[in-house]
Amino acid sequence: MSTQTWDAALYDRHHGFVASYGQDLLELLAALPGERVLDLGCGTGDHVALLRSRRVVADGVDASAEMIARAEEKYPDFPYFAVADARKLGVEGRYDAVFSNAVLHWVPQPWRVASSVAKALKPGGRFVAEFGGSGNVGTIIGAAQDVRVEAGLPAAKTPWYYPSVAQYARVVERAGLEVRSAWLFDRPTVLDGTAGLENWVRMFAGFLLEGVDEAVFFRKLEERVHEVLWRNGAWWADYRRLRIVAVK
Ligand SMILES: C[S@@+](CC[C@H](N)C(=O)[O-])C[C@H]1O[C@@H](n2cnc3c(N)ncnc32)[C@H](O)[C@@H]1O
């Protein structure tokens, strides 16, 4: 697992856009009432709640005890959340679909995730996922690494897995799933408030702050990316997402 820790309250306060974009992915999932669906990396539980409201039999698992605790607090009537690692779900043939939004770039050993998902699906079950694809947040990270190097620090090691369509399709096929569609697309994403870029780094890329003078780091980072990522009074993250639909 990555060493990323999840501040569930900060996540809900400033980064609700992640779950909001996931609602669009839920339309692609098109789960029917009565279907059994696993939300893999469910975070603070919004998609499970939405699916349950549509009478889908949804469960949510997440590797972070903090995120699961927050999901349970937000949805006390739903005893459907559990802490589990995507690479070892330990269930067989239980789900009509596995759904995952904004998770898989956080998990090293993608082949273990794919094989764990394949096991969890019933024959004919589908895997519908979206996560960071190759080139995701390239402008932010490139500039942040330059700022570190200028300050005499080593470039930080990034924890993410951002595959191309071909790379990820291979991983999923090796796990025994048939890829029905996969695509990579830009999704410039507006961040919350004038501190949006700083909040984004603190939430998702805290490893960039190791050893830096934070005030200087953020000032220089903002100067560097201002021309490209500041538009109409807001910061925009240069997200690039990979979507995949595969069937067992
Ligand atoms: C950006 S959040 C997305 C949460 C939720 N899917 C949403 O759309 O709001 C990423 C989530 O992936 C979870 N995660 C990271 N590594 C994981 C792993 N190995 N197994 C399960 N969940 C993991 C994190 O704990 C975090 O809740």
UniProtKB/TrEMBL annotation:
One of its GO terms (molecular function) is methyltransferase activity. The keyword Disulfide bond does not apply. Keywords: Methyltransferase, Transferase. Residues 38-128 form the Methyltransferase type domain. One of its GO terms (biological process) is methylation. This is Class I SAM-dependent methyltransferase. The lineage of its organism: Bacteria, Bacillati, Actinomycetota, Actinomycetes, Cryptosporangiales.
